[in-house]
Structure formats: C-alpha cells, structure tokens
Design goal:
286 residues; alpha+beta; Jelly Rolls; globular; binds 2-acetamido-2-deoxy-beta-D-glucopyranose; Beta-glucanase/XTH; GH16_AS; hydrolase
C-alpha cells in the first residue's frame, strides 16, 4: 500500500513536472520538427526556446510544422543572418503536398546582402502550380539586430503578409475572375536557409563568402492558428481583430499604401518589360 502511494505521488510529481516543462516549451518542439541540416533547438539569453538554422558549404537546414493548415494564421519571430549574408536566403513558407503541377505555395524569402547593405524581402504566391506573382520589399529596421514578427494570414478572402503587425501585402481571392487561388489543399509551414548565390544578391553577381560560414538565422515563438473553412472558430475571429474574413479597415488600407510607397522595390504588376502588353489578369482587376 505505502509503496503504491509513494509511487503514485512520485509519478504525479513527474507528471506535473513534465506538464510544467511542456507549458514553458510549448511554443516550438510541440509544433515543429527539425528536418535536416545543422539545426539546433536551445534557450536563448532571454529564456525563450529558439531554433537556429545554419548554412555552410555542405549543409542547408530546415524545419517543418507538424500540422498542416487549410486557412489559418502563422506568426514567427525571426532574426536573420548578420554581417555578410550575401548569397544566402532565409525562408518562411507554406506549401501543399499534392501533385507539384497543382501545388500552392506562399513564400517569404529574405535575400541576404553584403555587410551594411539592406536585406530584400521577396514574396510570392503559387496557386494551382502557377507562380510569378513576385513583390519585393525593403524593411524599415535592421532584421539582423533583433527578432521581428512575420505573419501569414490565409483565408477565403485573401492572403495577408504582415511584418511587426504592419500589413505589407494583400493577395485577393480573384477566383471568380479565373485567377488561381489556394482554396482546397492544406499547406505545411517550413523555415529554411540555403545558398542562392546564383540569383539572390544583385542577380547573382555577389557570391557567398564561405569563409564567413556558418551563416545562422534564428526562429522563435512559432504560433499557428488553424481556421478550417467550415468551422467558425472564435479564436480565428478574435486573433485577427475581427478582420479575418472581413474587408480591410482604413488603418490596414493606409498601411498597405504606406508600404507600397516607401518600401516596395519590385512589383510584377508594374513589370511591363517582363509582361509587355499583357500584364497578368489580377494586375488589372480592382
Ligand atoms: C543589397 O544592397 C544594395 C544596395 O543598397 C541594394 O541595391 C540591393 O537591392 C540589395 N540586395 C539584396 C539582395 O537585398
């Protein structure tokens, strides 16, 4: 009897200990799997669980989410490779797992640069296998000095990309005009770092300086909310300040405008060199 009770208490104690630990660490390893490469999960100096992804000449690194999402909101805090990061690309993206020729993908790619020069945030969308909807942005802060929050909101109405809660891009669902939009395949979230010195920095003219390797980017505080279409979840509504499935309010429209004016450095919709007289259909809508 006595022994059973001690056992029970001991295992209850262990249970609460495990519970306490997993509450502290719930943010990362519960939700993400390290895929390959030189990746580490550790506590940073502020006591937060962090994943570091490193790149060297022989290794790229990546993680993926355990869950897939068909509509939802993803927030991750990222600190990019400091110093000479030219040629490296750090990514946060969502992608489907079905047939490649019909795949959907939402991309945030951070193109590194030589020391002291700004990063470019490259964004793109693939829907039913068709991409080519690139827009690029400068950031209004040094993304290597600290963590900043990058957000993807994906719902039936639009895809929204936010940086530190500032809306930088909206991709509207124009399916009714025959423009492909991701609307039926779930996506998984990935983070990665890889070498793209064939195109990333000044169109490939600046090469990765491998003497600076390993190049390391840090991800922390992964937050994901799944918002399945048939389910009205109060969490989904709340977490978007009630605009998950709404038109943008004036504040958000102003943010978009401000970012377009001050930080957008490339827009496929204005690239007449590339498309000549036939801009993609969505560029001439709205
Ligand atoms: C690197 O910095 C230069 C100079 O500011 C800028 O023109 C270029 O777009 C940057 N490249 C990338 C890949 O961010």
């Amino acid at each position: 009897m006595g022994q059973t009770r001690v056992h029970l208490l001991a295992s209850l104690g262990a249970f609460y200990l495990i519970l306490a630990i997993s509450m502290v660490t719930a943010d990362l390893t519960n939700d993400l799997d390290i895929l390959w490469g030189n990746s580490k999960v550790f506590y940073d100096s502020s006591g937060k669980r962090t994943i570091s992804l490193s790149l060297d000449r022989w290794t790229t690194s990546a993680f993926q989410s355990k869950s897939t999402y068909l509509y939802g909101r993803i927030d991750v805090d990222i600190k990019l490779v400091a110093g000479n990061s030219a040629g490296t690309v750090t990514t946060l993206y969502m992608i489907t797992e079905g047939l490649w020729q019909f795949h959907d993908e939402i991309d945030l790619e951070f193109l590194g640069n030589i020391t002291g020069e700004p990063y470019t945030l490259h964004t793109n969308l693939y829907a039913r296998g068709k991409g080519g909807r690139e827009k690029q942005y400068k950031l209004w802060f040094d993304p290597t000095a600290d963590f900043h929050t990058y957000t993807i909101i994906w719902n039936q109405r639009s895809i929204l990309i936010l940086v530190d809660d500032k809306l930088i891009r909206q991709i509207k669902n124009n399916l009714m005009y025959g423009v492909p939009y991701p609307n039926y395949q779930p996506m998984r979230v990935y983070g990665s770092i890889w070498n793209a010195d064939d195109w990333a920095t000044m169109g490939g003219r600046v090469k990765t300086d491998w003497s600076q390797a390993p190049f390391t980017a840090y991800f922390q505080n992964y937050r994901a909310i799944a918002c399945p279409p048939q389910q009205s979840s109060p969490l989904c509504a709340q977490s978007f300040g009630n605009w998950f499935n709404q038109e943008l309010d004036e504040t958000r429209k102003q943010q978009l405008q401000e970012v377009d004016t001050n930080y957008k450095i490339y827009d496929y919709c204005t690239d007449t060199k590339r498309f000549k007289d036939s801009l993609p259909k969505e560029c001439t809508l709205n």
